[in-house]
Fold:
Amino acid sequence: MKPLSEQTILITGSTDGLGKATACELAARGATVLIHGRSRERLDATIAEIAKSTGSRKLSGYLADLAGLAQVRRLAEEVAKAHDRLDLLINNAGIITGRGGRRETSADGYELTFAVNYLAPFLLTRLLLPLLRSGAPSRIVSVSSVGQSPIDFADVMLDRRFDPMRAYTQSKLAQIMFTVDLAEELRSERIAVNAMHPASLMNTKMVMESFGYSTSTIEEGVEALLFVATSPSLEGITGRYFNQKREARANPQAYDPQARAELKSLSERLAGLAG
Structure:
């Protein structure tokens, strides 16, 4: 594992909350940090703030709305043009939608939570694999949740019965299923793939708007995320799910090969990767 000062790291959703705090900590430790956001104003402000607080000049920003797969593809292209390798990809961006029970859709017509929380990182990770191979030994970490619901493949987009929390927990389990699948696929390569739950109900904007209260801090989440993403003790550990710093068991569907194969086939079709 390379020293952080020699690593190039992309963090999605890093203009606020856990992503921003993690980016700041990694920048302070000397890493080259690629900041992603969907607002140019917030992206520029975040880079300026982190540069001021850490003194880092190894920061760059990437603008993309993960609710559109065309923008996910553009993000991957822009990162590949500017960098010849990635040492760490943190799929952190996430949303909770459907306040008031209203189902929303992405630019591609998919249920919005599934599209942003799962399908976007699925496609982005796939497109960035060449850079991660160039950076090997490298790591991919997906920020998931202890809240997990099995996928009903007869109603993945929740057209029939939409519930905001089911949409969220389904998307988080899908992340873990992808993690297990990809780890098996890359087992012969030096790319570790893991998913983790950083902390329960951190005091982020998303949590406060959705629940109105918090039970843990962003700092606790950063500590756990950095452990999974950077700890030398996890060298070679792949295909696992962590509850903060402890390895844990995800929902049983994550370990069902048939369910994972069905999700992979669906994801490749929806993301335009089939065939």
Notes: The chain has a mean pLDDT of 93. The radius of gyration is 17 Å. The chain has one domain: 4-270. The first helix runs from residue 17 to 28.
